[in-house]
Design brief:
CATH architecture of the domain at 135-223: Roll
Structural class: alpha+beta
CATH class of the domain at 135-223: Mainly Beta
Helix content: 40-55%
Strand order of the largest sheet: 4-3-2-1-5
Order of helices and strands: HHHHHEEEEEHH
Radius of gyration: 25 Å
Distance between the termini: 49 Å
Shape: flat
Length: about 240
């Protein structure tokens, strides 16, 4: 029989719950098991399609005036095609000396517009942080004592620097602690290096933990590796 094991997920990561060894279910149990599994498989697909359709329609509506001007009727897909073309053109400009001058001019203009200025500068810094050499600082996952000592939260290292004081210097670590289930929001915190714990988690594993609220869990030895230093020990 193919239902003699009891893992929650199969080797492909599908949420298949097998019955316990030696335990048999009737037709209703079989039906309930398949319905629950189907629901778990369908949920991410439905959410993805919903938001994909929403974004596609949003971009398309922006291009409706252009579509009406050129073709005298609304044509689905024109907005998405124009969006891809605009993104490509911006990429070409960014790799061109003259194009970079144009983009810098636009950057200065947006940086001086009231209200929009804070939004533009904030999102610009986020994209710059995830690009180039600075992105390497997001590839380290640590545990931080939050919201108080004895409770550990997952965070990503964003920077390291020295603090100089009359008592001497110490190394500080800046981290970004994402929130559940939306990892794009969170807290920016600064800790002494000795207060943090290393993990063996990759960025992808840590994000899955955060988004699922721990339902998609990693093994304990990856979250708390034996080599991980405790408080008061250097990382």
């Amino acid at each position: 029989m193919d239902e003699q094991r009891a893992p929650v997920q199969d080797s492909m990561g599908l949420p298949i719950r097998f019955p316990e060894p030696g335990k048999r279910h009737g037709f209703l149990g079989y039906l309930r098991n398949r319905l629950v599994t189907g629901l778990l498989v369908a949920f991410p697909l439905v959410v993805t399609i919903f938001f994909g359709r929403f974004l596609f329609g949003l971009v398309d509506r922006w291009a409706d005036p252009i579509s009406m001007q050129l073709f005298e009727r609304r044509i689905p897909g024109v907005g998405a095609a124009l969006f891809v073309i605009v993104i490509f053109v911006l990429g070409v400009l960014a790799h061109n000396v003259l194009g970079r001058r144009v983009l810098r001019l636009g950057d200065r203009i947006f940086a001086r517009i009231p209200i929009l200025r804070s939004i533009y500068l904030g999102t610009r810094e986020v994209t710059r942080a995830f690009a180039g050499e600075r992105a390497k600082s997001f590839r380290r996952v640590v545990l931080i004592p939050f919201p108080y000592d004895g409770v550990w939260s997952i965070a990503f290292v964003t920077g390291e620097f020295e603090e100089t004081s009359p008592g001497g210097s110490r190394r500080l670590i800046s981290v970004f602690m994402p929130t559940t289930p939306n990892p794009t929001t969170g807290f920016f915190l600064v800790y002494p290096e000795a207060s943090l714990k290393n993990t063996d988690l990759s960025v992808e594993e840590a994000l899955r933990l955060v988004i699922s609220g721990g339902l998609v869990s990693a093994t304990q030895d990856r979250v708390f590796p034996r080599s991980s230093p405790g408080p008061g020990q250097p990382l």
